[in-house]
Amino acid sequence: MHTHLKKTLGDRMFSCLSGLFFVLFTLMCAFPIYYLFINTISDNRLVLAGQINLFPRGVHFENYLALLRVNDLFDATMISVSRTVLGTSIMVLTSAFIGYLVTQQKMLGRTIVYRFIVITMYFNAGLIPWFLNIMMLGLTNNFWGYIIPAMVQPFNIILVKTYIESLPKELEESAFIDGAGHFTVFRAIIMPLCKPILATIAVFGAVGHWNSFIDSIILMGARPELRTLQHLLYTYLNQATNLARLMQGGGNITAQDVQAALNGRIVSLTVAMVTIIPILLVYPFMQRYFQKGLMLGAVKG
Known about the structure:
The chain is mainly alpha-helical. It has helices at residues 9-41, 44-48, 62-66, 73-101, 110-119, 127-136, 144-147, 154-165, 169-177, 182-193, 195-211, 214-219, 229-248, 255-297. Helix 1 (9-41) runs antiparallel to helix 14, helix 4 crosses helix 13 and helix 11 runs antiparallel to helix 14. The two termini are 41 Å apart.
């Protein structure tokens, strides 16, 4: 027998207002992406004149076809993809293994190691010491400069550790009794059971690697072929902004400079849209793991 509780007027009003709030909040989050997209498919002259607001006008897809002729776009895309796939994979593996190790009571110095990992979340030496350290390690102008510094992420290790501690200890104990070692337990038991939290930190890592460009600017100055897609977008944005400032200041500029500024703005809008698409495509497939892993991994600290 089902019992239905009668909703009061206040309950119905709260439900309606809550629904309205989340609908408006969703529209606020989605509108910037929609606005960016309609500007990339609208008539370029109308876009530059600021006449595109809610609906596209003069729809075309030539801007996306024109990206194929942009210098270094393919190389920058491959660097970003390689960095994201390799960097995320290594980060997930190291976070999972370190998170597993610091749950083992028999590990020598376990508490000290874990505290040193956590303390790095609150204190850091700053950008210049970080750069000097990277330079001494020989990671400047080197693709591994993207990967190695991001291998160990304290927040992700904490999430994995907390998740592993929520698993039944009997699973590990029974494996040890059967003669399995730590590596076997980690590979055959811990990793399969940690899929939700690993998917969660994989989303964190992939978004971080894909969107990062500061390290590309700082570390890859002498190797332009190692620039990421976000770095390329940053370059186009800077070029368009600088030329626009010159035009506003009445500087000595030519018609070619004006055209370059206009083209740079259109290209930057289109590249920005292209850089968003992969994350929009990946997240829906990871969402169920992301929500479950984040909730279970944050139950205890």
